[in-house]
Amino acid sequence: MGVLDGKVVLITGGGNGIGKETALLLAREGAKVVVNDLGGSLSGGDEGSAGPAEQVAREIKSAGGDAVSNSDSVADYRAVSRMIEQARDTFGRLDAIVNPAGILRDGMFHKMSESDWDAVIAVHLRGSFNVTRASIELFREQEQGAYVLFTSTSGLIGNLGQANYAAAKMGIAGLSRIVAMEGARKNVRSNVIAPFAWTRMIESIPIKDEESARRVERMKNAMRADQVAQLAVALCADAAKYVSGQIFGVRGNEVILFDQPRPIRSMADRSGWTPASILDVCLPAMKNDFFGSEASADVFPYDPV
Questions:
Q1: Tens of pLDDT along 139-151?
Q2: Strand 8-11 relative to strand 32-36: parallel, antiparallel, unpaired?
């Protein structure tokens, strides 16, 4: 018996990394799985291949599970609609979508091209819109459904050279929040995960100094994709029906619940603010509560558990 017995789940980016480990675990926990993966390169600059998704689907079936493969792009709304139709045609239903599919086009913002910006937004943010919008009416109609979308500490906290990725990932957090709010009465849930895991995305980040090399080695050995998959699968289960609108992180064996923006300080002037009084009074009073420009590695400097 698994926590997803009788469920049907679509997993995007299921040919590698977190997506692959999640697909395999979904099946082990009893779900019938639609394994989607474009099969493209990390930068998303090629046509892709059906191979990775089909290989994972075969692995699931050889272990006694039920799976079907799909090699369409999450950036294409019609293609995502076909994924959902494929799940219903093959397995008769769809209960959850896990959407870790993504690409990277890193570069300092003052050097970033429009094409690199557009490509990352298309796969991450547009892709998250596509999988939720193409299925939301179905989930509302059947009065149950779960989304597990993926954000990143590159957006929640920040990392140099990832303005496009950070913008997309923060957008996904906002999208998930509204989907959760609007879906509450229909038992439609949405949560996001910020994963820490050794994947080909992380492997692609250049190592510029000894400290970076040590950090990468820690990630490689102690923060695995299969650890992220545990939470992704749990959030699809009916037993998590009270969990929605949350931002989680997974770092090794740690499950982290992130806060969400709320007011932390307020200043008022009954006579009305002027630029001069804001500069003289308001901003200096708030200064001690300002956030610094730390990167994700500065906020999580300790070794993973």
A1: 999 999 999 999 9
A2: parallel
161: left (phi over 0), alpha (psi -120 to 50) or beta: left
Asked if residues 100 and 131 have their Cβ atoms less than 8 Å apart, the reply is no
C-alpha–C-alpha distance, residues 149 and 158, integer Å? 19
Q: How many residues does the chain have?
A: 305
DSSP 41-97: -TT--S---SHHHHHHHHHHHHTT--EEEE---TT-HHHHHHHHHHHHHHHS---EE
Give me the mean pLDDT over the 249-277 stretch. Answer: 96
List, by residue number, the catalytic residues: 165
pLDDT for the residue 113? 97
The string of pLDDT tens digits covering residues 45-63 is 555 456 899 999 999 999 9
Residue with tokens 């920040």: 158
Q: What is the pTM of this model?
A: 0.91
Q: Distance between CA 195 and CA 193 in Å, rounded?
A: 6
Structure tokens at 22: 């999640």
Q: How much is the CA Rg of the chain, to the nearest whole Å?
A: 20
3-state secondary structure of 304: coil
160-218 pLDDT, tens digit each: 999 999 999 999 999 999 999 999 999 999 999 999 987 655 555 566 677 767 767 76
Confidence band for 40, pLDDT divided at 50, 70 and 90: low
Task: Please name each of the domains of the chain with its CATH number.
Answer: 8-260 (3.40.50.720)
Do the beta carbons of residue 56 and residue 23 sit within 8 Å? yes
Nearest to residue 67, comparing CAs of 7, 128, 127? 7
Element spanning 190, H or E: strand 188-196
Alpha-carbon distance of 201 to 103, in angstroms, equals: 8
Exposure on the CB side of residue 230, measured as CA atoms within 13 A:
13
- The CA-based angle 75-78-84, given to 5 degrees, is 95
CA dihedral defined by 73, 77, 82, 87, rounded to 10 degrees? 80
Residues 65 and 4: their CA atoms lie apart, in Å, by: 12
